[in-house]
Each structure stands twice: as structure tokens, then as C-alpha cells.
Design brief:
- This protein is mainly alpha-helical.
- The chain is 60% helix and 5% strand.
- Strands 1-2 form a two-stranded antiparallel ribbon.
- Helix 1 packs across helix 3.
- The longest helix is centred in the C-terminal third of the chain and has 24 residues.
- The N and C termini lie far apart (55 Å).
- The model has no long low-confidence stretch (mean pLDDT 89).
Amino acid sequence: MRFHWIKPTSRACFIAGVVTRVHIGKMTMDQAIDFTLSLERQCKNPHLISKRELQSLKRDSDAELIRIRKSTGAVPAAGGR
């Protein structure tokens, strides 16, 4: 047995779930990653995930969170009208 993503899009879905949990302010990045892994919706054998993959997930989730936070400030209040 080894850790693996269920579908090719599972990693992106995982990152979206982590970013959502962190963005609403309920969890830290580490808590969100641990919780999302524990659900086992996008991956099999989450307890066997490598440190390298965890670091990569954290880095990619953090980059996506920064991108979202920048874009939320760029939208005009009137929706561009």
C-alpha cells in the first residue's frame, strides 16, 4: 500500500478544500491539511504521505491563498459598473 490520489484532479480539489478552510478563518494551514487528509475523499492511505508531498501541498495551498487574497481586493464594490 502507498499514498496516492484517487483521480488526476484530486490534488487540485484537495488544495481548494484546504484554502477554503483557511480563508474562512476556522483553521490554520496545518490543521486544514491534516483535516482534509483525514477525510480520505481525494486520496488513499493518507497516513503514508511523504514529507515532500506535504511540503508541496502546503506551498501550493499557500500560493493559492495569496492569489485569492490579492484578487479579492482588486474587485470593485459595484462589480465594475
